[in-house]
Write a structure and sequence with these properties.
The protein is an alpha/beta fold and 531 residues long. The protein has 3 domains: 288 residues, Rossmann fold; 132 residues, 3-Layer(aba) Sandwich (Cytidine Deaminase, domain 2), CATH 3.40.140; 52 residues, no CATH class. 39% of the residues lie in helices and 13% in strands. It contains 18 helices and 14 strands. The strands form 3 sheets. A 6-stranded mixed sheet has the order 2-3-1-4-5-14, with helices on both faces. A 6-stranded mixed sheet has the order 7-6-10-11-13-12. A two-stranded antiparallel sheet has the order 8-9. Strand 8 and strand 9 form a beta hairpin.
Length: 531
């Protein structure tokens, strides 16, 4: 076990960066740029590659530079989480950083760590519990087409054969990485990406330099790094979404005109007679949770449809039934499916399109409410931009196309959406070059910038002097190598990412986390990796 005497606590200025990105992103360029930007502020970056520790923990050997390297790392990550818990990689990261710090000593207090890479939201949540807002999660975005190209080429270059199903295998790797529904502890990049504090655009070197450089400037308190129109709109969309009482998810949207001005907002909520949506305090209130039977209408009606379907498939007199008739019984001449059989069926069809049906909900979707709100006030929307917290469902997508929305920006993915499949001819999703998209196609882009998690704090400059008190001249960042990150300097008012505790308190939390990890690994019979 890690002895208290040998533990070296983290320094007052220490930072931890985590990376989340889709399979196929060229991440080495991101790491090197980040290293350079942090060096400008006097910070030394140390990288922790979690997957490098997997073979030693799992007792595996063999070459890693192989065509299916991505799949092999996915298998190892799944195996570790299955044995040690869904947050195992996050706990492993703390163990590795503490050990490396002990080796490096305390001669360099301006140190930052880079954790590559995180695949489960539980890993992110654990690191936030240990480090608070000193842990910064960077979501690295690259279009799927570019990632597929990269993965296919990697497989082709490492393969002894010149031909093979390289692209098919790469597609499988990407889909599994985004959301593996086969195992409860599997890859979940999509939901982990939604936890990001900053989203960085890596579709080109120019975009990567601009967005990553700005991210670091904001972290250190650049007084003139104000919000982009997308960031401002996403903050409004998020604020609109949190007023929703929908049981499934809260979604918000903001509509922008061609000048970037917000002209309408929307949330997903049950419509009220006379126009608009229900608000808290309105009487009467007929939202789902206020009904005599407080149940999500979409879930309730899917269950009704399932019962009806199973009863019908059991056949009628003289028919050859589609189903085993022992699964149903007859009451008053009607075939009835009991709750146990219904639950078994619903469990069996998880992950299918039937389970993803969404048309029985009573709520107006956030995107549609933004459009309807504009319509109620006579505001034209053709050519507008819609910024939405979540990728639109296919029902909303068809209406956004019809109304003439030119550009849609989303933050969180939505796996149930069939927008791409149903409206492929009218949409362009995350293209490598957005400027090349024809006017007759709606552009749909991943949000880039400061996410709503830290918007109000990173852009609150009430504690930063923007001008010289005597001359009135603008004050810039100044001596970068002496600047402190805002999460350290303003720790007493910071809340994004958890409470910003002083380094001494965090050191105790980290030390306990390391000891708990060692004990847990011993309990599961897993060896500790070298640090």
């Amino acid at each position: 076990m890690e002895a208290s005497a040998s533990y070296r606590p983290l320094s007052r200025l220490e930072l931890v960066f985590g990376l989340v990105y889709g399979a196929g992103v060229e991440i080495q360029a991101v790491e090197e740029l980040l290293r350079g930007y942090l060096d400008d502020f006097g910070y030394r970056l140390e990288t922790v590659r979690l997957s490098d520790a997997f073979p030693a923990i799992l007792g595996e050997t063999g070459a890693t530079d192989v065509p299916d390297a991505t799949r092999r790392r996915q298998d190892q990550g799944d195996q570790l989480r299955e044995q040690a818990g869904r947050d195992a990689a996050g706990r492993l990261a703390v163990f590795l950083m503490a050990g490396r710090r002990r080796q490096l000593g305390s001669d360099y207090p301006r140190r930052a760590w880079l954790v590559r890479s995180l695949r489960r939201p539980e890993e992110v949540q654990f690191l936030r519990r240990v480090y608070g807002p000193r842990f910064v999660l960077l979501g690295i975005h690259a279009p799927e087409a570019l990632r597929l190209h990269n993965l296919t080429n990697r497989r082709r270059e490492k393969s002894p054969s010149t031909s093979g199903p390289f692209e098919v295998a790469a597609i499988e790797d990407i889909k599994r990485d985004e959301q593996d529904l086969e195992v409860p502890h599997g890859q979940s990049m999509r939901t982990t990406f939604a936890e990001a504090d900053f989203v960085v655009d890596s579709r080109s070197e120019e975009a990567l330099r601009a967005t990553l450089g700005r991210t670091i400037d904001i972290l250190f308190g650049d007084p003139f790094a104000t919000p982009t129109s997308d960031e401002q709109a996403m903050a409004h969309a998020y604020a609109s979404g949190v007023r929703s009482a929908e049981m499934g998810r809260q979604v918000g949207a903001a509509l922008l005109d061609k000048h970037g001005d917000i002209v309408a907002t929307g949330t997903n909520e049950v419509p009220a007679g006379g126009g608009g949506l229900y608000w808290f305090g309105r009487h009467p209130d007929h939202r789902d949770f206020k009904e005599p039977v407080p149940v999500d209408s979409n879930t309730e009606w899917k269950r009704r449809v399932a019962r009806e379907l199973l009863a019908r498939l059991s056949g009628s007199e003289g028919d050859v039934p589609w189903l085993d008739t022992s699964r149903v019984h007859t009451e008053h001449g009607e075939r009835v499916v009991d709750d146990a059989q219904l639950e078994a069926f619903l469990e069996h069809v998880k992950g299918t399109r039937f389970a993803d049906l969404l048309e029985f909900g009573r709520a107006v979707h956030a995107e549609m409410e933004a459009i309807l709100s504009a319509a109620r006030r006579g505001v034209p929307v053709r050519g507008a931009t819609l910024v939405c917290t979540t990728f639109p469902c296919h029902n909303c997508a068809r209406h956004l196309i019809a109304v003439g929305v030119r550009r849609l920006v989303y933050l969180y993915p939505y796996a149930k959406s069939l927008a791409r499949e149903l409206h492929y001819e009218a949409l362009e999703i995350d293209p490598p070059d957005p400027s090349a998209v024809p006017q007759e196609r709606m552009l749909m882009e991943q949000f880039v910038g400061v996410t709503p998690r830290g918007f109000t704090q990173y852009f609150d400059f009430s504690r930063i002097d923007r001008k010289d008190a005597v001359t009135g001249r603008a004050k810039r960042l100044g001596d970068r190598e002496r600047l402190e990150p805002r999460v350290v300097r303003d720790y007493d008012i910071w809340s994004a990412g958890g409470p910003a505790l002083q380094a001494g308190y965090l050191a105790e939390i980290e030390r306990e986390a390391v000891q708990a990890f060692v004990i847990d690994m011993q309990k599961h019979g897993l060896p500790l990796p070298e640090r």
